[in-house]
């Protein structure tokens, strides 16, 4: 009698990403990403994000407050591919093996908790306040965020987790995480991030094309929930701004942050000083070594 065949043991392509990962310290704010294999057996990961707020720059010591989301994100494996990728800000493109995934983001709300957190409600709008030793910092509750879905990619680079988004025929790093919290960059300002808030449906923005956008820019403030400090410029209510992508007419944060958008889309860019105006700053509104936050709406592509 022939014994029954033993099914082969299969390992998910995403298993190597499971664990707790730490983002770079952004002033006194640090994100933690916990990835776990889907309990249902699917080739997918569940992503839990937590943002911790510390009393001093450098993110040392116990957090004063934590921000959690009401729902986890899911990353479902689609394929493994060799693709052109920029794995870090200002890095040159390389050929990298990427695990391509679809990120599903359910509708969610944010909650802050901890011994330094208080809340107030003004005209029906909740304010979250954190009592730092140098004074309280308050921000509005953004309310429920809409559900969304987007293509993405994962890879490991020198032991670090890299999350990427498609851009211009390749992939661009949105964020990097390390397994060792003590080795994360401390006090170096924010990592470069691109966050789509509205998915466009029109023509794709790519290098060499002429883009027309509306934008608003803020100084980066790690103490704010949305990182928006003092506003230094906006085109809202004025003539939209037109420029050629890839021609060196805008800062690197825009050159790397806008490819992949489509007309009608809106994107938030968090840009470290090295990809903005660096040590020189710009005019009276942007001091030296300032990180920036932009909200950009793509109006036209030619």
From TrEMBL:
PPIase FKBP-type domain mapped to chain residues: 208-302
The EC number(s) this enzyme carries: 5.2.1.8
An example molecular function term from Gene Ontology annotations: peptidyl-prolyl cis-trans isomerase activity
First-level EC class: isomerase
Name of the protein: Peptidyl-prolyl cis-trans isomerase
InterPro entries: PPIase_dom_sf (IPR046357), PPIase_FKBP_dom (IPR001179)
Highest rank taxon of the organism: Bacteria
The organism of origin for this protein: Massilia niabensis
Family: Belongs to the FKBP-type PPIase family.
Keyword terms: Isomerase, Rotamase
SUPFAM superfamilies with a match to the protein in the record: FKBP-like
Catalytic activity: [protein]-peptidylproline (omega=180) = [protein]-peptidylproline (omega=0)
Pfam hit, one: FKBP_C
